[in-house]
Amino acid sequence: MFWRLVFQLLRGNRARLTVAILALVSGAAVISGLLNLDLGVEYQLTQQFRTLGANVVIAAKSVDPAPGTAHANSALMDEDAVLIPVQKVAGSNASFAPFAFIVARAQATQVVVVGTWLDQIQKLNPTWKLEGNWVSSRDDQTQCLVGRNTAKQLRLTTGSRLQLQYLTRASACTVSGIVDSGAADDNQVFMNLQVVQTLADLHGKVSLVQLSVGGAPKSIAMVAEQLSEALPQFQVRPIREVTEAEGALLGRIRLLIVSMIILILALTALCVLATMAALAVERRADVGLMKALGGSISRIVGFFVAEVGVLGACGGLIGAFLGAALSYWMGLRVFDTAISPQWEVFPVTILLMTIVAMAGVLPLRMLGEVKPAIILRGE
């Protein structure tokens, strides 16, 4: 009987309750979309920041670990001593490659030659533009990549033959591609590590190791800390310009999302409050009749509480599904990739909307002051 009366109340005030349910559905849709976005933004933002390149660098303690700053006279590290621990700690969570830097001569011009794993360089620098082809094997000793400034200076094109001289040793390679990075890399020549080590007689030695670690800033810092413990003889440092910018942006986005959720909850509560206040005035006669028939005020108010509870739960459920579609669309527009619905958002959204709907109970307190005799006299 109780729920039958509740549904009769809902049916009897369809026009006015439509305003409340629309407010609840709209609020739930936006909140659900923002919650899905908040849960998915960390992964999407991490993926976007990975395109900026390496975020952790390992170097000898006497070397400034900024990428590209080492040279032939820099302190060197034993290749196995650093790469084996890096493989154990970082594993599949990171892309990494060792680097060795020398200054060689090409056509009577000094050029910076970088020895690295050419099959990994694209993963570490996904924003690089390349004219030609990447080198797919780190064992290829005949192919190299050339920065666009160096290629212009030496008049090289893809397929050109490049001769390098370092002290009394010489090496040659075929230009597989021309790199356009928009940075200092445009002034360098990239060859596989073994070739540079042989050319400079640096067998088993590297200048630094760059890593692109996946995950949030906390995960990056944790990996850097683990590497520091595993490699106490070397300097392990996150590139703070990348990790701090990522953390700051993530924090600002989350602050914006939380602020928007609080604002939407407040506006939805006000809309429901206004609707239920108008209903409370209209229902004075119904309440007076119920009290005249012996109904207790707690029982009567219980009907209205159940009514707004049903409104809140239904609005939250419908809005949660609409919010999942909204977050999918926002992901495509902002990150150019879809954000999958997070199922834990559904009960949270329904609970929030039910709590917000309960704001409509406040005006119903005035119904306790209704005098049955006055209502029955038609006053």
Notable characteristics:
12 strands, 10-stranded mixed beta sheet, 12 helices, alpha+beta, 2 domains, 19% strand, 379 residues, two-stranded antiparallel sheet, single chain, 53% helix
**Regions with pLDDT < 50 over 5+ consecutive residues?**
63-73
**Oligomeric state of the chains in view:** single chain
Number of helices: 12
Percent in strands: 15-25%
Radius of gyration: 33 Å
Q: What's the gist of this structure?
A:
53% of the residues lie in helices and 19% in strands. The chain is of the alpha+beta class and 379 residues long. The chain has 2 domains: 176 residues, no CATH class; 184 residues, no CATH class.
Give a structural overview:
By secondary structure, this protein is of the alpha+beta class. It has 2 domains: 2-47 and 247-376, no CATH class; 55-238, no CATH class. Helix content is 53%, strand content 19%. The protein contains 12 helices and 12 strands. It has helices at 2-12, 14-50, 79-90, 121-124, 148-154, 193-200, 217-230, 240-282, 284-292, 297-334, 345-357, 372-376; strands at 56-60, 77-78, 94-106, 109-116, 129-132, 143-147, 161-166, 169-180, 188-192, 205-206, 208-213, 234-238. The strands form 2 sheets. Strands 1, 3, 4, 5, 6, 7, 8, 9, 11 and 12 form a 10-stranded mixed beta sheet that branches. Helix 2 runs antiparallel to helix 8 and helix 7 runs antiparallel to helix 8 (240-282). The two termini are 30 Å apart. The relative contact order is 0.19.
Strand-helix topology:
Elements: H1 2-12, H2 14-50, E1 56-60, E2 77-78, H3 79-90, E3 94-106, E4 109-116, H4 121-124, E5 129-132, E6 143-147, H5 148-154, E7 161-166, E8 169-180, E9 188-192, H6 193-200, E10 205-206, E11 208-213, H7 217-230, E12 234-238, H8 240-282, H9 284-292, H10 297-334, H11 345-357, H12 372-376
Parallel strand pairs: 4-9, 6-8
Antiparallel strand pairs: 1-11, 1-12, 2-10, 3-4, 3-11, 5-8, 6-9, 7-8
Helix pairs in contact: 1-10, 2-8, 2-10, 2-11, 3-7, 7-8, 8-11, 10-11
